[in-house]
Design goal:
The longest helix has 28 residues. It contains four helices and no strands. The radius of gyration is 15 Å and the shape is elongated. By secondary structure, it is mainly α. Keywords: Membrane, Transmembrane, Transmembrane helix.
Length: 123
Amino acid sequence: MKNISVKKIILDFLLTLGIILIFGLIDYFSHQLSAEYAVPPRYFPNKIIFGTIIGAISFWLLAGVKRPWLKALIFSVIIAALLQIRYFFEGYPLDFVILFLFIHFVILWLVSWGAFKFLKLND
């Protein structure tokens, strides 16, 4: 088994948190586009908390994936799908959940792809 340093775990967690914060900011503006897209105030802190937890676990599980675009794709699918499943069970309408599944996926994929590509260039 590989020896994993505490520093690497913290850096990976901070990277994931950074991706989720940028995603959350862009998502915040997408929800401001229409009253139909409005969400309660607890939505964004919950997205940051659960998105970071899901993202950190996903990032760890995807450690062997070396292509930034593929790692970002899988990372984004996992986070977007699990967040939207959670929102569906919280009572959000199905059409809202499906629409934002795609919006969240695209935002996450672009942000995480950029981050993973940047990291690969700096390895």
